Amino acid sequence: MNPPYPILLWFVTGALLFSLELFAPAFVLFFFGVGAWVAAVAVWLFPLELVWQLAIFLASSLLSLFLLRRTLRGVFRGNRAHNAAPTAPSPTISAAVGALAEVIEAIEPPLEGQIKFQGSFWRAVSGTAIAAGEKARIISQNGLVMHVEAVQPDTFKTTEA
Predict the structure, then answer these.
(1) Where is pLDDT greater, at 92 or 64?
(2) Degrees (nearest 5) of the Cα angle 149, 111, 132?
């Protein structure tokens, strides 16, 4: 026995699973949504019985889950670049380490402050307190947070922000 509108049912099921993924922390429902859409395409291309529809749904869901979850999880969390081709490093990141920046909001460990570097505002942390208006040297970057150290006024270089 086939449902009356199998393509629509598989499509709606996939959309529902994609929507539910927004509330689930495990990043699994997404792949079952992909499986539902693969089943919808298969039913659209070929008249399949319900048993074959379910088999295609399960096979494509599990296959995509096992083959793509690790890669896509890193992409959606921001841990990996989404493109496999190597790209030139961002000028902001490569130019940031060692450069000087202006402290806009005081940095008082362990709290974050804010710095201005190359015309952009960045969150910043430091091992020591740095007052607003002082200069800081960027020592590393972790995502969108710059790690800085206080700079004495006599050590300014011409590479200021």
Answers:
(1) 64
(2) 55
Question: Under a CB-based contact definition with an 8 Å cutoff, are residues 120 and 99 in contact?
Answer: no
Q: Domain range holding 133?
A: 91-155
Q: How much is the pTM?
A: 0.47
Phi, psi of 99 (to 5 degrees): -80, 160
Nearest by Cα to 63 from 34, 25, 21? 34
For 83, counting Cβ atoms within 10 Å of its Cβ (0-12 exposed, 13-18 middle, 19+ buried), the class is: exposed
In a domain, 83, yes or no: no
* CATH number, position 133: 2.40.50.140
Count up the domains in the chain and report the number: 2
Q: Report how far residue 129's alpha carbon sits from residue 108's, in angstroms, rounded to the nearest whole number.
A: 5
